[in-house]
């Protein structure tokens, strides 16, 4: 290991290894297959880069000349970034991909023949082409393969790619080479599946800690989402952050809103051209913009250590995705914040998107993410235990649960007993969704079929709705008052649940529609992201009709945006949009609005004054 320590100091400037790096590198030097799981920011790349520069590589020819490490990477941008970084350190590395012309590809091939390269980056499709396999086998130069982002191998993983499964042929084509898999995120079943799919021979499993103690997790019910995002961004003014959105449209509107509010933000999603995405990413990496607003298309391989916050503007589809994306914050070890804004609708949106994709495994991953968002146990503990590790700390001091920021329901005890009573009425033979529909008083086909609309608990929580009730059921499960059991995941009371049903014990349920009390907003007016997207047009003096055309919105919708613009900027003069005499008539009868409804004023004028004129005038009057 002295040789690899020399390499580590010479090329990376480090005097010592991070946790698990030395063990991972040792398996490569000793010539054993391995699977290494190191969370984002733990120095995973060095594990497969450094051994390629060592003279002590298993099976080498003495000087190390001609020993080649082949790195399988899923993205062209990712392999380019890593190769560029290696070249800057003076390391002989190259890639071959579709961005190169034939002359560049031949140059790489010549360097391989001459034994000049130590690291070669390839996408799985190119590596597995008969031409590439034949060439590498003929040269007899490959000493090991490093499969980066190895979770892509497993159908149980969070980013399955069919072409990755074909990598199992490497062990057959190169019997003398060893295969080493690397990923930042994989639960125990996924780890076993990766090893099986790749045909690893008696592999060493090296799994780092999934806990990131410098990250503060907050999971909040989405309310005024744009204000919630701004509250976080304002706590980190001038610092780097990422805002993840579920759709391209939301990326664009959120970016525009942040810019309108004076923040340096840029978008990133698959609907943009390659050069546009690269320019925005470079701007973020080089500090010319503070906030990257993106879909999950952004982030893989991003090596920016000083990201101080990551906001999810919607629930990710798995804990694996969330752990990887939130893990891009605080890679320098300094305190950073991860805020997830979620709503009950997110679950159904993902369920619809994933229809027929991934089957039961994908739904289980989605359910686990839903439980994490709505649970009331320590976020650090929940994430670590999801990946099969123990979390021995009672209170992390770095999540909304342990910091006491959750807003709890005043009637938690009564609601809990009502839910438990319903499960008992159902003879403990039905799942959470069915129980929630019964409690909400939904007379759907299945409820009626089993006569559950006649139960005492039918409609007992009708004021809250099935999704809110389902959240409470999840929270009772997390507190061990209920458990799921059997193939159909039916709800069953635990012993502590039976005691709670009889008034012995204490449960905690979050207030309906609420999450963390932090960043919940001040209650003052805050415009929506759609309204903010129109602000620049109004500021430029565009008419309502012009803005409607430019934004492809109905004029009545644009009037609502205009009313937000007026309130946000404290504009008191409506006459740029409403005739002075009309505005005066509306203001003289403002008292008719009472609770803010415009219809009484509209009726008073018998339709002579439009709703749009009333809305604009009232907005100017405060």
UniProtKB/TrEMBL annotation:
It catalyses: Couples ATP hydrolysis with the unwinding of duplex DNA by translocating in the 3'-5' direction. One of its GO terms (cellular component) is bacterial nucleoid. The keyword Transmembrane does not apply. The keyword Glycoprotein does not apply. It comes from the Bacteria. One of its GO terms (molecular function) is metal ion binding. Residues 225-374 form the Helicase C-terminal domain. Its EC number is 5.6.2.4. SUPFAM superfamilies: P-loop containing nucleoside triphosphate hydrolases (SSF52540), Winged helix' DNA-binding domain (SSF46785). It is an enzyme of class 5 (isomerase). Residues 25-204 form the Helicase ATP-binding domain. InterPro entries: DEAD/DEAH_box_helicase_dom (IPR011545), DNA_helicase_ATP-dep_RecQ (IPR004589), Helicase_ATP-bd (IPR014001), Helicase_C-like (IPR001650), Helicase_HTH (IPR029491), P-loop_NTPase (IPR027417), RecQ_Zn-bd (IPR032284), RQC_domain (IPR018982). One of its GO terms (biological process) is DNA recombination. Belongs to the helicase family. RecQ subfamily. This is ATP-dependent DNA helicase RecQ. It comes from Stieleria neptunia. The gene is recQ_3.
């Amino acid at each position: 290991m002295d040789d690899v320590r020399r390499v580590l100091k010479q090329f990376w400037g480090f005097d010592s290894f991070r946790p698990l790096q030395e063990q991972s590198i040792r398996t490569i030097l000793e010539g054993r297959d391995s699977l290494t799981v190191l969370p984002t920011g733990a120095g995973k790349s060095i594990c497969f880069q450094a051994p390629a520069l060592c003279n002590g590589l298993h099976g080498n020819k003495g000087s190390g000349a001609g020993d080649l490490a082949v790195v399988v990477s899923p993205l062209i941008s990712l392999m380019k970034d890593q190769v560029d970084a290696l070249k800057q350190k003076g390391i002989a590395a190259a890639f071959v991909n579709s961005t190169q012309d034939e002359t560049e590809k031949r140059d790489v091939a010549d360097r391989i023949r001459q034994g000049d390269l130590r690291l070669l980056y390839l996408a799985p499709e190119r590596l597995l082409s008969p031409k590439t396999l034949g060439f590498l086998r003929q040269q007899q130069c490959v000493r090991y393969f490093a499969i980066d982002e190895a979770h892509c191998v497993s159908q149980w993983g969070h980013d399955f790619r069919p072409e990755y499964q074909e990598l199992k042929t490497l062990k057959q084509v190169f019997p003398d080479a060893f295969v080493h898999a690397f990923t930042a995120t994989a639960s125990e079943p996924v780890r076993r599946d990766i090893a099986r799919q790749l045909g690893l021979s008696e592999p060493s499993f090296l799994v780092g800690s999934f806990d990131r103690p410098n990250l503060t997790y907050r999971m909040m019910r989405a309310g005024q989402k744009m204000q919630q995002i701004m509250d976080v961004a304002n706590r980190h003014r001038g610092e780097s952050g990422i805002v993840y959105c579920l759709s391209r449209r939301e990326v664009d509107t959120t970016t525009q809103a942040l810019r309108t509010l004076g923040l340096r933000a840029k978008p990133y999603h698959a609907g943009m051209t390659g050069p546009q995405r690269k320019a925005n990413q470079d701007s973020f990496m080089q500090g010319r913009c503070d906030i990257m607003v993106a879909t999950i298309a952004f982030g893989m391989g991003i090596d920016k250590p000083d990201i101080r916050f990551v906001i999810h503007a919607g629930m990710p589809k798995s804990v694996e995705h969330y752990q990887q994306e939130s893990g891009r914050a605080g890679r320098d070890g300094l305190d950073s914040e991860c805020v997830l804004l979620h709503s009950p609708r997110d679950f159904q949106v993902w369920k619809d998107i994933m229809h027929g994709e991934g089957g039961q495994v994908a739904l289980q991953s989605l359910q686990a993410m839903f439980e994490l968002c709505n649970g009331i146990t320590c976020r650090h503990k929940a994430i670590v235990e999801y990946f099969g590790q123990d979390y021995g700390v009672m209170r992390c001091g770095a999540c909304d649960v342990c910091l006491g920021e959750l807003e709890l329901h005043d009637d938690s005890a009564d609601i809990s007993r009502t839910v438990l009573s319903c499960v008992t009425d159902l003879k403990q033979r039905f799942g959470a969704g069915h129980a929630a529909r019964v409690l909400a008083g939904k007379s759907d086909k299945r409820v009626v079929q089993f006569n559950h609309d006649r139960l005492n608990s039918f409609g007992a929580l009708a004021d809250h709705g099935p999704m809110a009730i389902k959240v409470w059921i999840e929270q009772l499960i997390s507190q061990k008052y209920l458990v799921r059991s059997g193939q159909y995941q039916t709800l069953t009371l635990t012993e502590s649940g039976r005691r709670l049903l009889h008034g012995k014990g204490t449960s905690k349920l979050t207030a309906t529609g609420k999450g963390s009390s932090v960043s919940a907003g001040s209650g003052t007016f805050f415009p929506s992201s759609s309204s903010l997207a129109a602000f620049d047009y109004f500021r430029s003096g565009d008419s309502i009709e012009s803005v409607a055309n430019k934004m492809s919105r109905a004029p009545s919708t644009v009037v609502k945006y205009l009313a937000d613009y007026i309130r946000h900027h404290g504009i008191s003069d409506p006459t740029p949009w409403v005739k002075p005499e009309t505005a005066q008539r509306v203001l003289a009868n403002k008292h008719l609005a009472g609770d803010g409804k415009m219809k009484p004023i509209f009726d008073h004028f018998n339709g002579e004054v439009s709703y749009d004129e009333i809305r604009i005038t009232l907005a100017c009057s405060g």
